[in-house]
Write a structure and sequence with these properties.
363 residues; alpha/beta; 434 Repressor (Amino-terminal Domain); Rossmann fold; 3 domains; 6-stranded parallel sheet; 14 helices; 43% helix; Transcriptional regulator; transcription cis-regulatory region binding; transcription; Peripla_BP_I; HTH_LacI
Length: 363
């Protein structure tokens, strides 16, 4: 019996998927590694066989991802990346499930996690969010011996094997640098920062993304642009389906014609943009984090000046791919963290968000 792709993978000390991709031209394999595979195959007189090209492992490997459900536009983009990666690895007998848990519902979170563990889940990705009982959730995974990674928000103190996400303080610094540069020639230099007080909704002391952003923003502004006055206003708006109030509008009215820039930190983009549109048009710089494709219009009309964008589609994609890499090892082990670098999106390059929403990988 001739040599098979599995034999080539074993002899070269690489994964079967990598060998299969090299011969079938699916997915990414470096040119150097392809050449190594082809040279060894020729040396061993490997003859491709139609059946062997579609033959994969006999057992299915199951992956689950867990996150909160709001803001919906952000997790929708995560889901797009997850789906693209899931399609790529499906031919190799991988199944991917993405659970979006209602806010503060640790009971449902733990129930779904336990059900997945009982079904025989092979690896998990989760977001370390202070809205849930994360110690109990991490405890379930560690007790069951399930390899897991964190994405979006890290838990370095846990047994996670990789983190896929952004440096949120860096996102705040990027917003500060943009506003600082934009206000350099302004006679008045005052910025309003809208932040959210979440102390009353925390379940655990998991990282606070919004606090990291504010810290990065203030640190850079005070050192690089000390002449800019920064006003921080806290709101108590709850991130809940259908919830509406006038807190953002009231803050904007309070500072109307008093500031030259506004920086929104929490994920209340829809309420913020709606409030802006109810006020008289002002020559004010506006910056916020992450948007869905429909908001490109607000960049192009200059209602919105800039978006600090962390590419959630890429985040979802690389999370699944990191789990695939871990499961392809004979024994799961840590792999390097994957940093999703922030991009500053302006009206001039607003097609970047549209392109991200139409983003597809060649399978």
């Amino acid at each position: 019996m001739g040599i098979t792709q599995k034999d080539i993978a074993r002899d070269l000390g690489i994964s079967f998927i990598t060998v299969n991709r090299a011969f079938n031209g699916t997915g990414y394999v470096s040119e150097e590694l392809k050449q190594r595979i082809f040279e060894y195959a020729e040396k061993m007189a490997y003859v491709p066989h139609k059946a062997s090209q579609v033959l994969v492992r006999n057992t299915t490997k199951r992956i689950s991802l867990f996150s909160s459900s709001l803001p919906e536009y952000f997790w929708n983009d995560i889901d797009k990346g997850v789906e693209i990666a899931a399609q790529q690895i499906h031919p190799f007998n991988y199944e991917v499930t993405y659970h979006r848990i209602p806010e503060h519902d640790s009971e449902t979170y733990l129930k779904l996690l336990r059900e997945d563990i009982e079904k025989g889940i092979d690896a998990v990705a989760l977001v370390n969010q202070h809205k849930y009982d994360m110690p109990a959730i991490f405890g379930e995974l560690e007790q069951a011996g399930i390899p897991f990674v964190t994405f979006n928000t890290d838990a370095p103190q846990s047994e996670r094997l990789c983190y896929i996400g952004s440096d949120y303080a860096a996102g705040g610094r990027l917003a500060a640098d943009y506003i600082g540069r934009a206000l350099q020639l302004s006679q008045k230099q005052e910025v309003l920062v809208i932040q959210c007080n979440e102390e009353d909704v925390k379940v655990t002391d998991s990282p606070d993304i919004n606090a990291m952003r504010l810290e990065g923003f203030q640190a850079l502004l005070s050192t690089r642009y000390p002449n800019i006055t920064c006003h921080v206003e806290y709101i108590n708006t709850k991130l809940q389906p259908g919830y509406r109030d006038n807190q953002i509008l009231d803050v904007l009215k309070k500072y109307e014609n008093k500031v030259q820039a506004i920086y929104l930190i929490p994920a209340f983009n829809t309420d913020f943009l709606s409030a802006l549109k109810t006020l008289p048009r002002q020559n004010v710089i506006t910056v916020l984090h992450d948007l869905d494709g429909s908001a490109v219009f607000d960049l192009e009309t200059r209602m919105l000046s800039a978006v600090v964008y962390q590419s959630p589609i890429l985040q979802g994609y690389y999370t699944v791919k990191a789990l695939e890499q871990i499961l392809e090892e004979k024994k799961p082990k840590k792999i390097p963290d994957i940093e999703i670098v922030h991009t500053l999106v302006l009206s001039e390059n607003s097609n970047l968000i549209r392109s991200q929403n139409e983003f597809q990988f060649t399978i």
